[in-house]
Every structure is written in structure tokens, then in C-alpha cells.
Amino acid sequence: MIFSRILFDLATRNVRLHFLRSLLAAVGIVIGVLAITAMGMMGSTLQLSVSSQLSEGANALVVYPHMTSGSDEGITGRQLRDIKLSAGTNPVIPIMSGSDRITVGSKNGYASVYGLDPGDIGEIAEVDQGVSVRGGEGALVGPALAREYDMRVGSRIILGFEGGRSLRVVGILKESGFSGAMMTDNAIVVAENTFTSIYGDKGYSMVQILVKDLSAIDRVKESIESKMNRREDTVTVWDSRAFLDMVNQALGSISLFVMAIGGISLIVAAVSIFNVMLMSVSERIKEIGILRSIGVQKHEISLIFLYEAVILGVAGSFFGALVSLIGGYLLVSFMFGDTTFFFAPQTLVYVPTGMGIGIGVCLLSGVYPALRAARLNPIEALGAE
């Protein structure tokens, strides 16, 4: 134990004697660990944040009419009744949807248009300003659309081209992101009878079922499919959990790819450490010869140089992790305005992971120089200048 401490002290002394060279090598590790750790933490925070938002609609099942060649018919009233029977006590919300040209003042563009029973609107959207539609000519607009066209309660929207239907904005919805099958932030919501008076009645584009008990989603889905598709496929049932899984997989892959790019800097750092260690062996050939002549074994010579690599790795990894924590916190706070997910275990696990990778890279970089030092002939080493 005492002799190992002496070997460690020799390694520490060499790092101090060549401080600038060692510092530059450690800086490479700092940058590499910072890149991997920060990218991993940012990716994890983004994934948790998006999953949290999407999971609010994870209890939704959406039933679409089965697409057949040349058919644009939606879900009929009879099919809707069968869906309600299969859904049991879970809320069932039939939705008509389309898109149309809109004109607000001198601005024009395109937006999604949804038609719902006024009594169902509160199930999937919340009014932030004004009131909800009550079956008249009013319209609700999403917050993003309202900002883009500078709309307020009382503004007028013209649906369609010149001479289209003019509707008064009676309310502006709250930000909701993804709400099951609907994305209302950039859309217009009107009463069902208003929608059919403008676009005609071709059935419902989709039916959304809000399953109260998450554990019952599969049972409700199977019940709808067995009821509706008993003889032939008439509907397609979409599970919002599949979308959540797909998003999580995509974000995970992106995060891993970005971390791999950051890992390139660690490869550069590894080359730098390797070079520093080889230089250290070349400069200390005579010292190695003296140590061998007084009885120091080959593996103990190797330990000295491996200790040096570990010292550089631990120092660089520690500061790299520290900088990534501080920088990551500030960046997440700036980008998301909420650091809740930054302190989640799934995010913080990248700190020890990054440090472990950094130390491992340094240790591997020091293996060959350490073995080379151990293989030096003691007599030739003593005679070296």
C-alpha cells in the first residue's frame, strides 16, 4: 500500500513538472466530457418535456374511417352509435375536420377547421379569452393562429375565397400543443352545424374516445375493432400511445446521434493524452532505468504512467462535468423556462456517464505508453542521455 502511494506520488510529481502540457491535455478531456454530458442532458430534458406534454393526451383513442379507393365518406351516425356502445361510459367526441383559406383583415392564408358539438368542446379544449361557441355563427381560434393574424375576441374571419362565410371570433383557446387527434393551437373550431352549413355533411372525419382508466385502453380498443370491423374493415383505431412511443424513439435517436458527434472531441483528446504519455516516457528513460535498478518491477513502472493518465482523466472529467452542469442548467432555463426535468434522474445520469467515459478514454490512451515504459531494458535506460 505504501509503495503504491509512492508510485502515485511519482505520477503526481510528473504532472506538476509538466503542468502546462498536462493542462492542455486535460482541457481536451474537459471539452469532450462537456460535449457528451451536455448533449445527453439537453436531449433527455427535451425528451422528458415533450413526453410530459404529449402524455396529457395519452388516454385518447381516435377512430378514423377506413380509407377505400375513391371514397371520401366519413363515419356515419349509425357507426357513431356503435362506437359509443363499444366505448361504454368513456366520453366519445365526434369531430369534423378540414382546411380552408382564411382572410383576416388584409391578411390571408390557410388553417385547419374543426366542427364539434358545442357540448364536447370543453372536453378537448379550454377557452382562455372570451366564451365558447354555443351553436351560432361564432368561432374559436387557437392561440398561435390568433397571434399570427393579430386576432382578438370580436375579430372577423372569412372562410373560403372572396364571398366566403364570415365568422366572428367569440373566444381564443388556451395553448394545448397536441390534444389527441387535434392540434388546436393553429386551428379554427366551430359548431358542428356551422361546419356542415359551410362544407356539407360527409360524416365525421374522426371520433375521439377519452378513456378514463389508462389500463382499460387496450380493452376499449379491442371492443371497438371487434364491433366495427366484424365483417369488413370499416374503421381504423389509432392509439395515441403509439405516437408517444414514436416521438420518444425519435428524440432518443437524435440525442444519441448528437452525443456521438460530441464524442469526436474525446477521440481528439485521447490522441493528445497518448502523445503526452509517449513524450513522458521518452523524457524519463533514465529515471525508469534507475527505478528498475533498485528493484521496481515492470508492472509497477506501468502503474506510474497509468496513474498519470488517470489523474489527467479524473481532473478533466470532473471539470467537464461541472461545466456541463452549470452550462446545461443555464441553457435549459433559457430555452424552456423550466428546469424541473433538468434534475430528473434520467437527465443527471449523464454526468457520471460522461465522467466514466472520459476517465476510460484517458486510461486506454495510457496503456501503450505504460507498457512501452515497462519493457525498456534497464541497462540501456541507465545509459540514455
Q: What features would you describe in this structure?
A:
The protein has 385 residues and is of the alpha+beta class. It has two domains: 1-55 and 245-383, no CATH class; 60-239, no CATH class. Helices cover 57% and strands 17% of the residues. The chain is built from 13 helices and ten strands. A six-stranded mixed barrel has the order 2-3-8-5-7-6. Strand 2 (92-104) and strand 3 form a beta hairpin. The protein starts with a helix and ends with a helix. The relative contact order is 0.19.
Share in helix: 55-70%
Q: Name the strands of the widest sheet in spatial order.
A: 2-3-8-5-7-6
Low-pLDDT stretches are: none
Strand content: 15-25%
Bulk shape: elongated
Give the topology string: H per helix, E per strand: HHEHEEHEEHEEEHEHEHHHHHH
Number of strands: 10
What class do helices, strands and sheet pairing give?
alpha+beta
Sheet with most strands: 6 strands, mixed, barrel
pLDDT averaged over residues? 81
* Distance linking N and C termini: 32 Å
Radius of gyration: 33 Å
Number of domains: 2
- Treating each run of at least 4 consecutive H or I residues as one helix, how many helices? 13
Topology:
Blueprint: H1 2-17, H2 19-55, E1 60-65, H3 77-87, E2 92-104, E3 107-116, H4 121-124, E4 127-130, E5 138-141, H5 143-148, E6 156-159, E7 165-173, E8 187-191, H6 192-199, E9 206-210, H7 217-228, E10 235-239, H8 240-283, H9 285-293, H10 298-336, H11 345-348, H12 350-374, H13 378-382
Parallel strand pairs: 3-8, 5-7
Antiparallel strand pairs: 1-9, 1-10, 2-3, 2-6, 2-9, 4-7, 5-8, 6-7
Helix pairs in contact: 1-10, 2-8, 2-10, 2-12, 3-7, 8-12, 10-12
